[in-house]
């Protein structure tokens, strides 16, 4: 904590971003997206699926040594390396001498889909293969990870499954829905239906590009429902839970919640949540489980929305407040990298 001054200070929202909805939408629509040039590598997974790994192409003045720490980034549902919040984190990492690698899940950020399976809140196989690949590519580097929203849920599940066997030394979870049953119920209340509808639109658009891969599949697949889904729940019921063998969408949500994984995390993990997050509500946060695990630290800001946190040093249109907190925490595990 002595090396993480940002999370010791109270987060104060800007006066005109007066609630979580306003801050969420403001960040999504108006936040600056810094220019980042990536080098993309499409990697085939063991089951024939493909993920895209984007690594920043730095200028000679910004180039990092081969053994620089590597930060694996997991964006949120339908998000990817193109998103402003991801680009800002890539830049923040570089400023601390950390190389960022963005893990784009199947079909996101224009990554190819080569098998009749996307990704899910519970599936950690792709993450495991990406970590293995990054470890092989940078054998002398400190490995770190950070995820947002659904990416945070996947990251925490992976850490819980791997325990002390993971090569990742420290990680950060942001805007994690944690309890997917509660998060799903929350989507169907008031203005939250707008987020549900917009995210379903994004899922439907990804599916439309690859619908031919799902034609004629046996089982309980509902391709017509996936093609016209109006909610995340409908998409998950039509496709996701079938792809990963869940008997029902409710069983999928209950069994995929990363709150179940917190007791098994064995590396330093910082969880950052906003109390007014409309998509990952405070009621999902597993306070007791985090408190009982000495490897975990929870920071709940009174405001910030979902993927917002616009009151940072570059307020209101620049980097999220969380960027500084993340790099401070991750470098604190190896003080020689801390500024």
UniProtKB/TrEMBL annotation:
Domain AB hydrolase-1: 69-307
Cross-referenced InterPro entries: AB_hydrolase_1, AB_hydrolase_4_sf, AB_hydrolase_fold, ABHD4
GO molecular function, one term: monoacylglycerol lipase activity
Superkingdom, taxonomy of origin: Eukaryota
TM region(s), chain numbering: none
Catalytic residues as annotated in Swiss-Prot or TrEMBL: 149, 277, 306
Family, as annotated: Belongs to the AB hydrolase superfamily. AB hydrolase 4 family.
Protein name: AB hydrolase-1 domain-containing protein
Source species: [Myrmecia] bisecta
């Amino acid at each position: 904590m002595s090396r993480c001054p940002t999370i010791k200070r109270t987060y104060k929202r800007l006066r005109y971003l007066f609630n979580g909805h306003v801050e969420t939408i403001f960040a999504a629509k108006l936040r600056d997206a810094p220019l980042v040039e990536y080098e993309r590598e499409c990697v085939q997974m063991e089951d024939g699926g493909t993920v895209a790994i984007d690594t920043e192409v730095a200028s000679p003045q910004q180039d990092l040594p081969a053994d620089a720490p590597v930060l694996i980034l997991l964006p949120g549902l339908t998000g990817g390396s193109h998103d402003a919040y991801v680009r800002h984190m890539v830049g923040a990492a570089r400023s601390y001498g950390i190389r960022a690698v963005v893990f784009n899940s199947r079909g996101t950020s224009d990554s190819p889909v080569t098998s009749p399976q996307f990704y899910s809140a519970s599936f950690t196989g792709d993450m495991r293969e990406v970590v293995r690949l990054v470890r092989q590519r940078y054998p002398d580097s400190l490995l770190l990870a950070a995820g947002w929203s659904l990416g945070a849920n996947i990251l925490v599940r992976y850490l819980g499954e791997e325990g002390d066997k993971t090569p990742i030394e420290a990680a950060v979870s942001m805007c994690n829905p944690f309890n997917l049953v509660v998060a799903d119920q929350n989507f169907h209340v008031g203005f939250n239906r707008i987020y549900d509808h917009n995210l379903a639109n994004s899922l439907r658009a990804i599916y439309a590009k690859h619908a031919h891969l799902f034609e004629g599949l046996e089982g309980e697949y509902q391709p017509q429902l996936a093609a016209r889904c109006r909610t995340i729940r409908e998409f998950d019921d039509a496709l996701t839970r079938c792809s990963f063998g869940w008997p029902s969408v409710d069983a999928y949500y209950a069994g995929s919640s990363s709150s179940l994984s917190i007791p098994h995390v064995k590396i330093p993990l910082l969880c950052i949540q906003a109390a007014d997050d409309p998509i990952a509500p405070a009621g999902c946060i597993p306070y007791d489980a985090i408190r009982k695990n000495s490897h975990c630290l929870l920071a709940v800001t009174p405001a910030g929305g979902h993927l917002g946190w616009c009151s940072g040093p570059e307020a209101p249109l620049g980097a999220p407040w969380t960027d500084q907190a993340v790099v401070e925490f991750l470098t604190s595990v190896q003080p020689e990298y801390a500024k």
